[in-house]
């Protein structure tokens, strides 16, 4: 068991791989006459590709001596590229790591490097690590990050992000990086524990992912000195230039709240940046409906349309990522010894594959999804439905805060003075102010305030989906907020809308109240239905799912509602503490 975790292939397997070349064993799959991207020569070349199990055992002119039981595919007319790599996945945006991996594979993204935030916050370490182990058995390749902070003010942060926990995560074989560093202001203010963890990460030859929106050139330089390697927060050409100048790898983003890629490419080209080896792509945890058009394949397509040379565009989604993470001996190219993750394209200008091979198995063939991601027994890993053992009372529904939070966009909230009467059971429809409550999922505490800018005609919404897994209530009607809460409780977690006493929209989230166990394709329909409903009720921003997620996220300005109370991000102070129930 220990050996299996320590080495990808046992000695016995490696001997078998060599036996295929010796003509004693047949390959399991032979791709003949394949026009493929060879990154050693940076050219399209033609070869025969032999695959045995999950590994490419030979690429070249020769054909195997033995082919009994071997599947032989003539690749005439197709173009082959390596499986794409998403270096910065947040696989918990209502979908779950398993369903997102299965969905992404249909678009050729067969390797994902995933945020561990939900696992660190919601599961004990032993369960989290058994989940990581289970994720090794799916056709996609799943790697992970190790977070150093909760991205919000949580109670008992020092136990969740204890030295022992961080060290165990960092040492885990499936963890490729530390970060993302949302808590970098603390780091610059002298947080030596975080600096120590960064030192440990570097000692293990692992990377550190930044999260440095708006950082000045000097700040970027300081963070590079402290150990950061890459950042995905550049929102214009100059910010890309500054990051490159300070030695960063730059992750170009195209996400549901920051669909920046076309602009980034235009502006960097205007600045004369035309060397692409320091660039990688990320969709940065987009909501499912945004992923309808594709994942990394769509970003490669945009890059090609924006004049990036075709091979460079593919490299940004493959070999550049593998080299950055020091895993190019396994990923990112079609060459002997690599894991057999290969995309078969009809045309090099269309990066969405017609067929996909992941770990040597077909997951998509001739446009058909082969559905070979087996269902998971989620409860074995601690992902059971939310079990809420308490009720909301009329006492909970008291809103007497002197100021509330006002939405500037999908995710930024500012303070504002409340001028309306909040003592009634319903608020008027002539303004866009709603009651807002964050309440502990165990029912121990709550924060009540008013939210401006979310909707002007919403009766009641309850959501167990949030940054910390605590419960959010929003609405004009206290009665409908309570009704939505009751239905959410029945479902075992979810996002529920109640109107005039009736449930009118719901997305069940059966996994800890945070994730759906549905396929992403089905979730897209649910999410679109909720978005249309909320837009009709006055929601005017891009992504309500991210709005719910980020209400308590202290890596964003200005006022956040957290487990410790109303929090002023800039001054790092709790303005109003949570009320104990």
From TrEMBL:
This is adenine deaminase. The keyword Thylakoid does not apply. GO terms for molecular function: adenine deaminase activity. Pfam families: Adenine_deam_C (PF13382), Amidohydro_1 (PF01979). InterPro entries: Adenine_deam_C (IPR026912), Amidohydro-rel (IPR006680), Metal-dep_hydrolase_composite (IPR011059), Metal_Hydrolase (IPR032466). It catalyses: adenine + H2O + H(+) = hypoxanthine + NH4(+). Keywords: Hydrolase.
